[in-house]
Amino acid sequence: MTQRQTQTQTQTQTQTQTQTQTDVIVIGAGPVGLAAAMLLAGRGLVVTVLDKDGAQPGGPDAVGRAWREWHRPGVNQFRQPHVLLPAGAAVLRSSLPNVVAELRELGALSLNILEGAWRLPALGGRRPGDERYDTLTARRPVLEAAFAAAAARTPGVTVRRHIAVSGLLAGAERIPGRPHVVGVTTQDGEEIHAPLVVDAGGRNTPVGALLARLGGPPPVSEQADAGFVYYSRSFRSATGTPPPPAAWPLVHHDGLSSIVLPGDDGTWSLSLVVSSRDRALRALRDPRAWERAVALFPTLAGRTDGEPLTGVQAMGGLHSRSRRTVVEGVPVVTGLLSVGDARAATDPQFGLGLSLGLTHARVLSEVIGAAGTQDPVGLALRFDEATEQTVMPVHQRLRHWDTHRLAEIDALLAGRRYETEDPGWHLGNALDALKLSDPDVLRAMADVACGLAAPEAAFSAPAVSGRAAALMSANGASNGYGTRPGPARAEVLAAVGAVERCFTDSGGTAAAGAAPGTVKVTGTSMTAGQTGFGIDGGHDDGE
Ligand SMILES: Cc1cc2nc3c(=O)[nH]c(=O)nc-3n(C[C@H](O)[C@H](O)[C@H](O)COP(=O)(O)OP(=O)(O)OC[C@H]3O[C@@H](n4cnc5c(N)ncnc54)[C@H](O)[C@@H]3O)c2cc1C
Question: 3-11+20-79+155-224+320-399: what fold?
Answer without folding.
Answer: FAD/NAD(P)-binding domain (3.50.50)
